[in-house]
Amino acid sequence: MVAAFGQHVVDLRHAIGRSSFHKGGVSALHSCARGHLSGQQPQNSFLLWHQDRRHETLSRRHPRRSRRATRGKNEGGSPPRPRQELRYPFVSVCCLLDNLNTPHLLCYPRSSTFPQHQLAIFKATISTTTEKMSKTGSISLQVLRDNPVEEGETNAQVVDALEAALNVNDDALIPQAAKRLAEQLDSITLARDGAADKESEVENARYNVYTTLLAAVQQVPADHEAHRRFALVLHDLAGLDGHPTWKGLEGFAICNRDAWNDPSLSFEPVKDPEAYEKWCNLNAFVATLLSTGAISWRELPIWELRDGLEESLEELSQENKDTRVVVATLWIKHTGNFIWEQALSGKLEDLDETDSRMLRAGELYHGQPGYSRDRWDFWKKRLGELRSQVSESRSSAVDEAIGAMTELEGKN
């Protein structure tokens, strides 16, 4: 664990176990933080972290002397030496996981308490660390073990197999990982001997695997490298000989349709506090999978770009607005090449009635359905208009999407 005090970043990974942190409480930051908070801090003191609604208090205590050593020193004389306290107001605390799944704690100071140059150091350190850890690091699916999507003895085995595939850390290992995943899933899901309907048994097992898979990728941050490598693993899995259950990812579209639930479109209050983040993560993965050619769902990019860029967002809450726009940027980021190629080659006469309806324009775009250069230009212009309407933390995603579109245009 790492805590930022002043200009220092202090390693506190031994101060607290992961389990206690995830339960929401940090009870103590131990002596490995010595000397970083104050140059006057005694070498043998340690830090305790107390939290309330207004501030955190770092209480510095001297190790308790034995009663024999202190006997008589305070009797009839001066009162005992009071405990020293350093009130250090933090504005927020952020938990991160590094590539070893080690939890990190970053404490942000209030700007009114520290000089601006120190605050800039904090922001730069935290921003760099957050970006690095969100894009790399091992993926844990423990939440799916604790709260299984599908019941049954095989669920944990499926989760283990998916977790291993999500943690492939080298492109050269992707073909091997795909073969291993196919073998593992075959051993888990093959129909039992004597089953009345083996085909139905396989279909049910495949549905359970894909449902768990889609729940798994929702646990992966949207900008994490694992999305790309796992998408390549599935691409290779779909083309493997000798594993017909997974050939062409048959049945995956049905499972994805069941999972395709945009919380920003819900008429009911969203109960899951992580629903928006999971939705972004899911879109990042499916967009990446589309870019590999493993699936050919050409309607999905338009659906999400239409919801985010072609519909009025004025009446939406800030969270819903941010989510719609961010999802649109994710599709541009992860499958921009596909969208650009479709935009250059798309023609109205190539669309039948069904496609025209599925790929129709939103209320703000008055062009034709389907992909076109005109629609591409509208999306880019609209992103520029929405940049000032999204939260500050989301504006970089808009800038990145616009930059990606400009770069693609420059290649032609």
TrEMBL record:
Ranges of compositional bias, category Basic residues: 60-71
Region (Disordered): 54-84
Name recorded for this polypeptide: Uncharacterized protein
Organism annotation: Sordaria macrospora
